[in-house]
Amino acid sequence: MSKLKVGLLFGGKSGEHEISITSARSIARGLQEGDNQYKYEVIPIYVDKEGNWWGKEVAESVLSAGKPKETTGERRKWEFPPDCKQVDVFFPIIHGPNGEDGTIQGLLTLMAIPFVGSGVLGSAVGMDKIAMKNAFACAGLPQVKYIGVSRSEIFSNPCVFPKLCDRLEAQLGYPCFVKPANLGSSVGISKVKNRNELEKALDIAASLDRRVIVEAGVTARELECGILGNDNPIASVVGEISYNAEFYDYQTKYTDGLASLIIPANIPQDVSETIRQMAIKAFQAVDARGLARVDFFYLPESGDILINEINTLPGFTSLSMYPKLWEASGIPFPTLVDKLITLALSDQ
Length: 348
Fold this sequence. Notes:
Strand content: 15-25%
Radius of gyration: 20 Å
Order of helices and strands: EHHEEHEHHHEHHEEHEEEHEHEEHH
Distance between the termini: 22 Å
CATH superfamily of the largest domain: ATP-grasp fold, B domain
Largest sheet: 5 strands, antiparallel
Number of strands: 13
Strand order of the largest sheet: 11-10-9-12-13
């Protein structure tokens, strides 16, 4: 029986390039462990920081080294490596813009090759924080107060910008969080406590994205839940993120020892069950598929549970919450990647 050829697509042009490489290394190992080694042949496909696609030889060298390929100036943006013709199913693990925002998903759909994860709609809505929160609102999911802002408002004339800041202060107050709408891994996010910080944070976010979201800050426990499935998704146990930084920023997220993952979270059973049900509802609200991690704020004093966001292509590194949640739910890493490929093939 021939092995199924899995195109492991990683790298990309976003600021999460290195995280994608680390995730791909973990997935490649998972596809070669246990029974998976007899079922799958991994064909790595690497997209460098310039957007050039590279086949197995270069991709394997990047996986082996664990670091990006130095750009040679050779342009391959519109040339797919010959290895792509062999692929039976793609496992895209390109994080951030041009990876989990529906662009790669649209390309793979046009190629008529099955792939792991959400399609164009689920990926696009799940990536854009403003569209995501609007979808959550339509589904009746409770959230923190938020305001969507355009780059043109931020980079406007000196009369308009102060009025924007006045409105944000009046409706959201301090502290609040300023985020680019379409970046992941906490890239470009600022926690602000006064007008000066707000102005600087808006400028930073607008330099990274034409859409910016500003959210009211809350003092809460940060809980996360994994989702697995297509039309009938299931939820994992609930985990908690604990850290000493101002917020769960990029450095804290991906530096070993700066954050703790508590799985399962020490919360009442009814809170855990509510979060699991809300996570499935959020997954369906954005039309996600295959996998997602859904993040929540829990306020123990009031008992409120607020949905924060959904990540339709969560990290698969050794520090990542998603695979750890499923391991604690009885699905070890090799079984998890096997199930994701099965879900991709069954949804065609």
